[in-house]
Amino acid sequence: MTKRKTVWLVMVVAAVGLIGGVKAFSGAAAPEDMYIPMGKIVLKAPDGVESKRSAVEFPHAQHFDIACITCHHTWGRTEPITGCMTSGCHDLAEVAKPKPGEPRDDESNIAYFKAAYHKLCINCHKANKVKNLALQKAVKTLDKPLPKSGPTSCSECHPK
Questions:
Q1: Which residues does 49 contact at the CB level (< 8 Å), separation at least 6?
Q2: Residue 10 belongs to a domain
Q3: Chain CA centroid to CA 64, Å
Q4: CATH number reported for the structural domain that contains residue 85 in this entry
Q5: What pLDDT was estimated at residue 58?
Q6: pLDDT tens profile 62-121
């Protein structure tokens, strides 16, 4: 093949690749493409529930180092991810009352929307805090600050 034909072929392949790349990253998603919210997701009480605290602005993109399946535990990895308060998941608007004489069981109340968020979020943040403290004790100097562990108090998530 001549040098001129080789240059022409490389240019055609590059142009096709560039056009395909621009089309793929243009933001025009096909209906079957998954949409991942990049900003903050507002988590609030379900409709009809009077909330005692403000809604939570959940920074979704700050949690991308955590496997999606950790929070979206029913996701089969092929279908679109649904919200936590989708029917049949964590959609109960009030906590189930224990039977007389039985202690309250938080595990059985996990379908209650507030219990699900609190258990997953706060427990993860508390575990991160423990890991950070252990790292601080284990090393004398760090070349970069430890990652934030996340909020664990009511007012940190629910500002007034």
A1: 93, 94
A2: no
A3: 7
A4: 3.90.10.10
A5: 92
A6: 999 899 888 888 888 888 888 777 777 887 777 777 788 877 766 667 778 888 888 889
Instruction: Give the count of domains, the chain.
Output: 1
Q: Which two tokens stand for residue 97?
A: 């009352």
What is the three-class DSSP state of 49?
coil
Its pTM stands at 0.65
Q: What's the distance, CA 147 to chain centroid? A: 17
- Residue 43: domain span: 29-157
End-to-end Cα, the chain, rounded Å: 72
Q: Note every long-range contact of 3-11, with CB atoms under 8 Å and residues 24 or more positions apart, other chains counting.
A: none
Longest distance between any two alpha carbons in the chain, whole Å: 90
Contact yes or no for 76/120 (Cβ under 8 A): no
- The CA distance from 137 to 144, in Å, is 15
